[in-house]
Write a structure and sequence with these properties.
mainly alpha
């Protein structure tokens, strides 16, 4: 779904416009205490930091928040305008969602924007474009293609940036989108709009479930994944339904329930269109077979996956090709998944081959993401493979960059690092003092990640 300008309108007096390339612009007609508070929350500022940004005292900000109808003086209005203009795209869009959730009923016209004194062609067209955005926002205040397209664009941009921001922030933004779409469900009876909103809710809930899995909240993630499956089914979105069933399968085998995992995957294969959806499900099934102690079944699934990969080259998938990011399943992810398969059956040599292939593909396709969670996760698996082969020094070499990662990046890697700790506890390492030191370092690393999550 594409548009030159997609506009979402919060209550009158504020407009958030999202252009085709995902750039958000926030405009407020008149600032009051409530809107100032929502801007502070959207930009994640403390009261003191927000006051410093505006050049006022912290008591003044507290007064606005305790008296939401107070209107700051004109110079503070300008400072608030500037603070909103300097916000990031995500902060501006988050501000718009906060405003919409507040249900503002005080009608105000947005402030007029005039060309700069230079009168240049650029400023003239910039003013016209911005005014058009505001007009489109007022027209699009009801449920319609523009509002729904805005929600799609926002959830899709977050999916593509999944590993680039703290997962807790991602989760909060997906929840905002989901709640906004749920509210819109009550305002329409048009089948096409209902179907699109179910997809938005299903996609955002699915990604919330994925974050829950990465953060080790497996029970919560399982509930969210089941809900996402139901929304996908309601919308008739086969690829999304298959994706969420695959996530349910992943959660099941990590919880030690490989039979339940295979049930989810089998159902997913009956729903999945040919191509990338089935390619991903085969790899998840291979991991479930491996966890169940069935290496032959795992190998058969990996072989079948190659046929699905060939189909993927001939047919586009709405999630893998249309959105990408966390919804994508490419060769790098497939190799990383194969790493986990061979790790589950204690085949260190195959772990090493698959992990090195995954790292090569990650370096080729995303060279600027050398510290992203998928790369670090594969390094941890490679270290585990080295331990299976009796190579303590090699394991430590692969763990070194991961062990220096800040605590906020560790939560999604705790399950893999726990495998390393269990391997270091095996009898072969019990009398090795260096292995004991590494095990202590790994335990401290895991504890720091747990503390960050709590």
């Amino acid at each position: 779904m594409t548009a030159t300008v997609v506009t979402h309108t919060p209550p009158e007096g504020s407009t958030v416009a999202v252009s085709g390339n995902g750039t958000a612009v926030g405009v407020v007609g008149t600032w009051d205490g409530r809107r100032a508070k929502l801007l502070r929350l959207a930009r994640r500022f403390s009261t003191e930091a927000f006051a410093l940004k505006l050049g006022v005292g912290a008591r003044t900000v507290s007064k606005w928040e305790s008296q939401p109808d107070v209107v700051p003086r004109i110079e503070i209005q300008r400072a608030l305008d500037t603070t909103l203009e300097h916000a990031t795209t995500y902060e501006q869009v988050r501000f718009g969602l906060f405003l919409a959730a507040e249900g503002d009923t005080s009608p105000e016209a947005p402030r007029t924007v005039h060309p700069g004194p230079s009168g240049t062609t650029d400023s003239l067209f910039a003013t016209a474009t911005r005014s058009t955005m505001l007009d489109a926002g007022r027209i699009g205040s009801r449920v319609g293609d523009d509002v729904i397209a805005y929600l799609f664009e926002y959830v899709h941009s977050l999916s593509r940036d999944y590993t680039e921001r703290p997962l807790i922030e991602e989760f909060a933004d997906f929840q905002l989108i989901r709640d906004q779409a749920v509210g819109l469900l009550e305002r329409t009876r048009r089948p096409s709009e209902l179907a699109d909103l179910n997809v938005v809710i299903g996609e955002s809930t699915a990604l919330m479930a994925s974050i829950g899995f990465d953060l080790g909240r497996w029970d919560d993630a399982a509930m969210l994944a089941r809900a996402a499956t139901m929304y996908a089914e309601n919308a008739g979105h086969a690829s999304l339904e298959a994706w969420t069933l695959g996530l349910q399968g992943t959660l099941a085998f990590w919880a030690g329930k490989p039979e339940a995992a295979l049930d989810h995957i089998e159902l997913g294969l009956t729903r999945a269109p040919s191509g990338a959806s089935r390619f991903r499900l085969r790899y998840i099934a291979a991991r479930a077979h491996a966890v169940a102690g069935n290496p032959q079944g795992a190998a058969q699934m990996l072989q079948a996956a190659q046929r699905d990969r060939e189909d993927a080259e001939r047919s586009a998938d709405p999630l893998h090709d249309g959105i990408g990011g966390e919804f994508a399943f490419d060769d790098g992810r497939a190799a990383a998944c194969a790493t986990s398969v061979w790790l589950a059956v204690n085949d260190g040599e195959r772990v090493e081959r698959a992990a090195e292939q995954a790292l090569r593909l990650y370096a080729r396709d995303a060279p600027d993401r050398s510290t992203a969670s998928p790369v670090f996760g594969t390094r941890i698996d490679l270290a585990a493979g080295r331990l299976l082969m009796g190579d303590l020094a090699g394991a430590e070499a692969h763990l070194t960059p991961v062990l220096s990662a800040p605590p906020s990046t560790r939560m999604s890697l705790s399950g893999r690092m726990g495998t390393v700790r269990r391997l270091l506890a095996r009898p072969q390492w019990q009398r090795n003092s260096h292995a004991g030191e590494l095990s202590s370092t790994v335990s401290d690393w895991l504890s720091a990640g747990d503390a960050e999550l709590s």
